[in-house]
Amino acid sequence: AVLAESLLVFSAVLSVHAAVWDRFSWCAVALALQAFYAQFKWDRLLQLGGAVFQFRGAANSGLLPASMVIPLLGVVMKERCRAAGSVYFERFGIVVASTGMLLALFLSVLAVGITKPVPTNTCILTGVAGSIIIYTMKHSLTVSEVIEVLEVLLIFVYLSMILLYLLPRCFTPGEALLVLGGVSFVLNQLIKRSLNVIEGRGDPIDFFLLVAVVGVVLLGLFFTVLFTFMDSGTWISSMFFHMMTAVLGLGVIMPWLYRLIQRNPLFWLLQFLFQTQTRLYLLVYWTFLAASACGVVFYQNAKRSSESKKHQASTITRKYFHFIVVATYVPGLIYDRQLLYVAAVLCLAVFIFLEYVRYFRIKPFGQTLRHLLSLFLDERDSGPLILTHIYLLLGMSLPVWLFPRSCAPKGTLPGAGALVPYSGVLAVGVGDTIASVFGSTLGEIKWPGTKKTFEGTMTAIFAQIIAVALILIFDSSVNLNSSYAWILASVSLVSLLEAYTTQIDNLLLPLYLQIMLMA
Question: Signal peptide location in the record (predicted)?
């Protein structure tokens, strides 16, 4: 299964390399070869219990698929923005690619350094790949860009040491690279833009995303440190939690956002949300879907009898939420992507805040949330945090957030790139859902080394092709320009990756589909 997963990742890397064919795509190939060998060192460390931190069990390290996501995103973004003539975002893509490669190299060097005896061949390969990448960065990056890359690496190192210690068994090494690498990059971007504020420059919704992500992470770190010295389950602690949340929100996050967008954040948000009648209709519709999702949670818990306290929701029951999310995102993508962007940021902040309430047992809702959500746990929620619903939201939202709007003058990219914002809907909302439902009910032929079935994967590919046809019918902005073969190959590759990966597919699959479509 690990070899098949690696082969699929190599296929994605070589596809991007063939489409781009520059020094950075060559670096991506070198990084993939090096990460393939380093992945087995991480796997061995996890099996022997020799890893520095406690990582999520029942999964391999996932170093290779995770190592390639950020570099490949940077490479394809650079190429798209170069073609559109956007020099600033072309340089930004180069910084993203360089940062991703350096973070992946750091994790590989860490694995090699703590493996005993020292793996000579992997050391040599890591040294060669590192030399190629550093040589390319030396001749491609300016001094300020090199400093920016090193700043992200430094933030990543400290953030990893803190969060992996505080949150054991929540991540695999690959998932930690993706999540903490992304948070480190966002934090560095927010600091950089806060120090260089120019009135009227930058889109307020981009600043809203940066401040929201950093704000909820800092909030979590603050309360984690605080509640190591006091019991979080008492009413006094709960009142202090709510009071300090208000203080940090109104006293730190709001002024920070005001400095960036040069206007009152609350007034801007209200004006933005109710700007048009279409937005009002979408908000009412999304409120109805949110209430429906809550209804599913309460109904499933009501069915749980006192004799079956260990009963867990079935795979099909959990996929109800995938259908609800698809029904949420598709109208937003068709009618108002900016509103969807902001609504997804707000939803992410609410989800993470509610997870803090559940984790710290904050009164009056902490214990209730623990009871309600325990029904929907699966083997991936082995740590103290429940992250699968947050990963689902991220998987659907990242293609919307990472869409290079400045490199798409007409609001959409040409060819297969027009489907980039739909990557989450296709890969997770349609593909993963259909594969799980049909695979668990009708599947008989299993892929070698996995529990996933051939029937589930083939049905997922077919369903995603139908979904693309429906998008063409209902979204007039999508024009594929006869790039159907590339779309079929991309969807097939990501569906096969879903069958073989043991990582969080809600997070990984949309990113790989986005990379393939942008290439």
Answer: 1-18
